Structure formats: C-alpha cells, structure tokens
Amino acid sequence: MTSNAFEEIVSDFEFLEDWEDRYRYVIERGRAMDPLEDALKVPATKVDGCASQVWLHPKVQDGRFSFEGDSDAMIVRGLIAVLRALYDGRPVTEVPKVDAGGELARLGLNDHLSAQRSNGLRAMIERIRSVAADAA
pTM of this prediction? Predict the structure, then answer.
C-alpha cells in the first residue's frame, strides 16, 4: 500500500547502516523540497504540537491528496519530505487508512527521534489524516 517514493526511502535506509548517515539522508530529502511560500506560513497551516515551527499546506485535486510543507528545523523539514513520499498522490479516501506508524517503524525513526520530534511527527500525521478525512 506504500508508494514507490516511500519504498525508495526504505531501501536507502537499509543501505545506510549508520544513523548519522540516515539523519543526513533525511535532511537532504528536506533540502531538496521547494520552500513553502511565506504567504502560506499562516496560523491555519501551522501544526501545533511540534517543538519547531511547522507548516503543512494540503491540497486535494481530482480526488488525490498532496501537500507542501516547511519547517525551521532541517531534520523536521526532512521528516516532512518522508511524509510526502508516504502520502502524496494517494486517493484522498486512502490517506486516513495508511498505517503511518507501521510504515515509519520500518525506518526505525521512533527509536532515534527525541520525544519532542516524535510528538511533532504524530501531530503532522494527525493533521494530514484530518484534512484528508474532511475532504473525503
């Protein structure tokens, strides 16, 4: 049920044995994303529950879900990129059904993120699911 983009991340993580390298990889994924326009960094797109500043701008077009996002923290920006690989392009009705915790566990992220980062990641997932459920 996962996308090719997410499976690529899983494969790359299996290749990278060291967590320093994995963190760098996640950060590089975030750097590769286009920045979110400043006009979209508003209270309505801000995700509460994150230690850093996080904005998600979801879109539903032709029944498919996508989102843009940004953060002032490089690792969080990378986590947004990972979530985009997991969710982007899915039918909006499938988004709430994705076992994000299970899929992200394949990367071992829960064991290597601080409690604050883990809470922020959960907050981002909940925002994504909520928006998709409302749109469906």
Answer: 0.94
